Backbone:
């Protein structure tokens, strides 16, 4: 076999366009219904052949990874090596641009990209269902990131159904520098004694971003009230985004605290990014595109 050369894989942010909590299992985990797409804003992982497994991180959020003793990238690499019965050597270089514990699946996207990259580097061919099962053991968002396409996500993250074609749109992501634990947000929600929601799926393709937004406005993120109680600044982020010219829909993603805002045109998203970056220099603000299929990026 020819030794592969180094290559890179993108690990884009995951966006929950809506997120409904539909029930709770006997083991305490919650049933979810969510429309998940991605943002053209990502971490990058570079894979190089090596005898041993190693990881180096750089980028604005790399220092925060240094305090994590065994992050998802290494967990994913070791788990795949064990499943495939390979020695598991590789050097992984991670450029960490996405904030940690922020509701956009940064760690999950990195883990999924690790699985994809090492399957290629090691020239192995695991069964797709086995790889998906492995992904779920790493985290509820890893399977959807591994799939890489817009889907309706159900169960605890393992039930993925292709979504209708989504229209092109631009977006802005904002994180106010707050890290939220997903279990803690669910625990806070339980204190609020709120009702579970019905699934919000639809079976047709919106003709444009305006129709997509009209659909999304009849849905919500059920975790947002609890997350906002824990981090009131989320309400401020949403208000600031809603006040931007051209803003179509502002909503929190996942369990927060990152929020997104949809725009029809890239120029509107760029202008909003410049405005917020100048007015809130302590916030992480990035513009990108709504992506229905991140596999084309790699």
Residues:
């Amino acid at each position: 076999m020819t030794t592969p050369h180094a290559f890179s894989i993108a690990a884009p942010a995951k966006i929950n366009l809506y997120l409904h909590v539909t029930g709770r299992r006997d083991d305490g985990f919650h049933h979810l219904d969510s429309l998940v797409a991605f943002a053209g804003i990502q971490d990058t992982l570079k894979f190089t052949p090596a005898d041993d497994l190693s990881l180096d991180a750089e980028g604005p959020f790399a220092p925060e990874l240094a305090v994590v003793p065994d992050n998802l990238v290494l967990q994913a690499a070791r788990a795949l090596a064990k499943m495939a019965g390979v020695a598991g050597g590789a050097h992984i270089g991670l450029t960490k641009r996405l904030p940690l514990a922020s509701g956009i699946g940064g760690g999950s996207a990195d883990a999924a990209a690790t699985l994809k990259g090492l399957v290629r580097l090691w020239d192995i061919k695991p069964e797709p269902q086995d790889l998906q099962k492995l992904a779920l053991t790493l985290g509820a968002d890893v399977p959807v990131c591994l799939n890489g396409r817009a889907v309706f996500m159900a169960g605890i993250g393992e039930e993925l159904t292709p979504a209708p074609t989504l229209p092109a749109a631009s977006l802005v992501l904002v994180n106010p520098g707050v890290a939220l634990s997903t279990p803690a947000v669910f625990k806070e929600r339980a204190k609020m004694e709120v009702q579970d929601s019905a699934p919000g799926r639809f079976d047709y393709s919106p003709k444009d971003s305006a129709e997509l937004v009209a659909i999304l406005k009849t849905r919500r993120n059920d975790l947002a009230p609890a997350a906002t109680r824990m981090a009131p600044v989320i309400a401020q982020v949403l208000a600031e985004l809603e006040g931007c010219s051209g803003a179509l829909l502002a909503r929190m993603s996942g369990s927060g605290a990152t929020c997104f805002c949809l725009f029809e045109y890239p120029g509107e998203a760029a202008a909003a990014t410049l405005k917020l970056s100048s007015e809130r220099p302590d916030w992480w603000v990035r513009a990108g595109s709504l992506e229905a299929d991140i596999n084309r990026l790699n």
